[in-house]
Amino acid sequence: MNKYEALVRLEEIMRELDDLGGEARTIFATAFPELLSEADAYGVFTLGSSGNRYDTTLASMINAAERETDDECLEEEY
After folding, report:
1. Closest CA to 63 of 2, 1, 14, 5
2. Is the pLDDT of residue 47 over 60?
3. Phi, psi at residue 48, to the nearest 5°?
4. Which of the pair, 51 or 9, is modelled with greater confidence?
5. DSSP H helical segments within 1-78, as ranges?
6. Rounded Cα gap, residues 42 and 71, in angstroms
7. What would the pLDDT profile of 20-44 be if each residue is shown by its tens digit?
8. Helix (H, G, I), strand (E, B), or coil: what is residue 49?
9. Within its chain, how far is the Cα of 45 from the centroid?
10. Per residue in 51-73, pLDDT tens?
11. Taking the CA of residue 74 as centre, how many other CA atoms within 13 Å lie in the half-sphere pointing to its CB?
């Protein structure tokens, strides 16, 4: 798997995590509505990322890998 293929798969995983987070939220809304506002307040359904820009998450690591790959591509052009 080359870097481009890896990045494509990582982006797919992030979309899957977003879908799973939405599904988990729906389950909580239906089965445990009294806990939903607390879960929303803490962002528990946002899987793979964080509202805190200082947290290291899957999303932030994918962004770093994209930047690294972009930098390598630029270096190859020169």
Report:
1. 14
2. yes
3. 90, -5
4. 9
5. 3-31, 33-41, 58-77
6. 35
7. 999 999 999 999 999 999 999 999 9
8. coil
9. 11
10. 888 999 999 999 999 999 877 76
11. 6
Q: Identity (one letter) of the amino acid at 53?
A: R
Q: Which amino acid is located at 77 in the chain? A: E
- Determine the pLDDT at residue 76: 67
| Domain total of the chain | 1
Amino acid at 7: L
Q: Domain containing 34: what range?
A: 3-77
Written as six digits, the tokens of 15 are 């979309």
CB atoms within 10 A of CB 59: 19
HSE-CB at 76 with a 13 A cutoff on CA atoms is 6
Count, residues in the chain = 78
CB 57 within 8 A of CB 18: no
Residue 65 burial (CB < 10 Å; 0-12/13-18/19+)? middle
